[in-house]
Amino acid sequence: MTNKTILRALLLLIMLTVSPITLVAQNAEDESEEERLDRIVSVYFVGNNDYEFYKAIENLREHVKDDPAKYFRTMNREIIYDLNHNYYSKALQKTELLKDELIKANAEDYYYMVDFLLGIFYGSRDENELSKKYLLKAANAIKPGTNDHELLNIYQTLTNISIFEDPDEGPDGYNWADKALSIAQTPRERCSSLSLKAMVAIGRNDKKIFEECYQEIMKIRSENPQEELSMYWKYIKMGRHVFDGDFDQAVKACDSISLDVPRLYLLAAIYKLSGDTKAENETLYKLIQAKDKRNNEISTLTINDINQDIQMDQQRITGERIKLYTHIGITLIVALTILLLAYFVMSRRRRYN
Questions:
Q1: Are 42 and 33 in contact (CB under 8 A)?
Q2: Rounded to an integer, what distance in angstroms lies between the CA atom of residue 288 and that of residue 305?
Q3: Three-state DSSP class for 300?
Q4: N or C terminus: fewer CB in 10 A for the chain?
Q5: Single pTM value for the model
């Protein structure tokens, strides 16, 4: 496994802790019931208390069950929580359930969610080309201007995958980050998009772009002290230490990351940028072991995404055929009725003649 392959998927799992969350600080008395439930979900989403998270997401899902868009998003959010905590079996089962619910509800506007989750599945296995394929498929399925928040999540995830890719291999992370920024509306959306662009700059060892992003991030934070903008901040501070040449502090900053794979990804990147080849190689060896352990858990499962895709297409085709056959049937019945009436009229005329 080459260093580039190791580094190109850095922070994909870290991304999973951010994209589905909307954290906005607000006074409790100003909250609606839905906002209160959403805030509780957001709190537990970034932690490890499974019981409280599942209870919170179930309460939110029950509250929004009459709104299909919000209902399906809560399902999507729960699956990403499972992925982030390595509960791959649960995540796959729930993705299958989500697909069935979408088909049952004939909710074609939300079919993209399955492709989005498949993109995340492949990204978690470092199969980045397939990951991008499904993420782009999801993005293309979203009608312009109808769901910018979900489109933003997809562009941010594509940025994340591109963090350590070779810029000559195609559209790089800067392009995806700029697409995300073009539709970002809230301070948090702009701050998270800029943070990802800054991470791309770290992967490119591009101090100029990092500084531009860093200054804009600091401006947003100072202008919006009431907003919860801490997501990604630890990684931006890590980048700040790297470009300031304080690699020891950058390494220490990794200690707060609990999951082995993303923590080791970051450490390897820091050692690479610091020029400490020995420490980098030792970390890469540990990373390979951690990835093997994680991927062994995934490989025991059946991620039959192509079959899922075909099944969904077959459902669409079957539905279209039923409509077509119904239309043809009605047309034939009408035509036959007209012919019978015409025959009856002609027969009566012949009798009178």
A1: no
A2: 25
A3: coil
A4: C
A5: 0.69
pLDDT digits (tens, 9 = 90+) for 31-52: 688 888 988 988 888 778 899 9
Rounded-to-integer distance, Cα 249 and Cα 237, Å: 9
* Cβ neighbours of 135 (radius 10 Å): 26
> Where exactly are the structural domains of the chain?
305-353
Tokens of residue 184, six digits: 């970002």
What's the maximum distance between 2 C-alpha atoms anywhere in the chain?
Answer: 110
3-state secondary structure of 24: coil
Would you say residue 94 has pLDDT above 80? yes
CA distances for 351 relative to 50, 195, 212, 266, angstroms: 84, 89, 95, 95
Residue 168: count of CB within 10 angstroms of its CB:
6
- The residues near 265 (Cβ < 8 Å, ≥ 6 apart) are 6, 7, 9, 10, 11, 287
Contact criterion met (CB below 8 Å) for 72 and 60: no
Phi/psi at 225 (nearest 5 deg)? Answer: -65, -20
DSSP string, 118-185: HHHHHHHTT-HHHHHHHHHHHHHHSPTTT-HHHHHHHHHHHHHHTTTS-GGGSS-HHHHHHHHHHH--
**Long-range pairs of 246-254 with CB within 8 A, sequence gap ≥ 24:** 247/271, 247/273, 247/274, 247/276, 250/274
What is the Cα–Cα distance from 134 to 131, expressed in whole angstroms? 6
Cα angle, residue 241 at apex, residues 252 and 46 outer, rounded to 5°:
60
**Which residue type occupies 22?**
T
CA distance 323 to 225: 55
274: CB partners within 8 A, 6+ apart? 242, 247, 250
